Amino acid sequence: PEPKRRRAEAGDGAGEAAGDGAEAEAEAGAGAGAEPSPGAPFPLSSVRLRRLLRDSAREKAAFVHGQVTGPSGEDTDAVLILEKTPFQEEKIEELLRKHTRLELQMANDIYSTYRLYPPPELSEIKTTVVYPATEKHLQKYLRQEVHLIRESWEDYKNITLPFIQSQSFSIQWVYNILEKKAEADRIIHENQDPSNGFVLVPDFKWNQNQLYDLYLIALIQRRDVKSLRDLTGEHLPLLKNILQEGKEAIVKRFGVPGSQLRIYLHYQPSYYHLHVHFTALGYDAPGTSVERAHLLADVIDNLVLDSSYYQKRALTFALRADEPLLKKFQEAGRV
Ligand code: GTA
């Protein structure tokens, strides 16, 4: 049966309530807007599993649609992302010594495989919670076919821009970081200049336990730049600050040099407040495919060559089969 939805979730529009996409920890500061009182921990053990949206054997991750029933009997949707975490070198010896059980699966000559059961403190599962989740979140994590779009500047103005203005994910979590209402203790670097400043924080995909999957995100202070499409030569000082200061802050804090970082923007992003991704070069982070990632150094060079480069050229991106934006492109005869 179709699950009941909370009133606040009915619209996925820009006016959506705070609490969109915040991790449980950040949710406390953001005030998730769900029935439980703000700051209350997410009631993980009372989640009912509705369906598995997607799983990935390679990433060892499951994307789950769950529901929580509130005191008034209303069901609220949640998305849970469960991920096995990478091994930490310094914990491996402990794991071998402290395992709780070891079952031989097969042995053949010099080869054998086992099932090793680690103690709880060494079997962490990174759990990301989106609660309350909107229909758009459920769609985002559902495995679906994708289609490539080639968006001209006219397409952007006539199709994409009106669409993202009418409905896109709330960016309240970004404002919470900029205003120090959430994740303030996680800030790695901050440039407070209102035009050319930014805040660098660990992305919520990274648990910071190991550098293998290092992932940080730079959020710009100004609130009038939605995406790559808005960028002009005017933004060069901002972009150069992000590139330069971001690299410096990461080598200082984590010891990873700029030559081992992939620094890029997404087009289309999920959240329309300009931000830059910093990931470890050796890590195949989600969203690094050629149809989505634009290297910041290339973006800067393009804008130096032509201040209105991103208001002229066509940009390619993929859309999931049931995304309303794809329908808009189809209706306009552009797919
Ligand atoms: N610090 O509250 C937050 C927060 N939120 C809500 C989002 N981010 C946050 N970071 C902090 N605090 O890298 C991060 C996201 C993302 C960035 C936004 O902000 O982790 P974007 O606008 O370009 O959108 O970036 P993107 O990349 O689509 O974001 P998102 O939400 O991570 O989606 C990733 C896609 O990759 C999804 O479609 C998902 O299906 C897929 N995916 C694969 N593996 C994972 C995974 N382990 N975790 C999450 N998504 C994954």
Automatic annotation (TrEMBL):
Which GO biological process annotations does it have?
deadenylation-dependent decapping of nuclear-transcribed mRNA; mRNA processing; RNA splicing
Q: Domain of life of the organism in this record?
A: Eukaryota
Q: Which reaction does it catalyse?
A: a 5'-end (N(7)-methyl 5'-triphosphoguanosine)-ribonucleoside in mRNA + H2O = N(7)-methyl-GMP + a 5'-end diphospho-ribonucleoside in mRNA + 2 H(+)
Q: Does the keyword field hold GTP-binding?
A: no
Keyword entries, A-Z: Acetylation, Cytoplasm, Hydrolase, mRNA processing, mRNA splicing, Nucleus, Phosphoprotein
Where is this protein found?
Cytoplasm; Nucleus
| InterPro entries per the UniProt record, alphabetical | DcpS/DCS2, Histidine_triad_CS, HIT-like_sf, Scavenger_mRNA_decap_enz_N
GO MF assignments: 5'-(N(7)-methyl 5'-triphosphoguanosine)-[mRNA] diphosphatase activity; RNA 7-methylguanosine cap binding
Q: Which Gene3D superfamilies match?
A: HIT-like, Scavenger mRNA decapping enzyme, N-terminal domain
Q: Where is this region: Disordered?
A: 1-43
Per UniProt, the enzyme's principal EC class comes to hydrolase
Enzyme Commission number(s) of this protein? 3.6.1.59
Question: Do you know which PROSITE patterns this protein is assigned to?
Answer: HIT_1
Q: Which residues bind substrate?
A: 173, 183, 203, 205, 266-277
Q: Does the keyword Metal-binding apply?
A: no
Provide the active-site residues from the annotation: 275
Gene Ontology annotations for the cellular component aspect, listed alphabetically: nucleus; P-body
Q: What is its main location?
A: cytoplasm
Q: Where is the composition biased (Low complexity)?
A: 19-35
Q: How does it assemble?
A: Homodimer. Associates with components of the exosome multienzyme ribonuclease complex, such as EXOSC3 and EXOSC4. Interacts with NDOR1.
Task of the protein: Decapping scavenger enzyme that catalyzes the cleavage of a residual cap structure following the degradation of mRNAs by the 3'->5' exosome-mediated mRNA decay pathway.
* Stated family: Belongs to the HIT family.
Q: What is this protein called?
A: m7GpppX diphosphatase
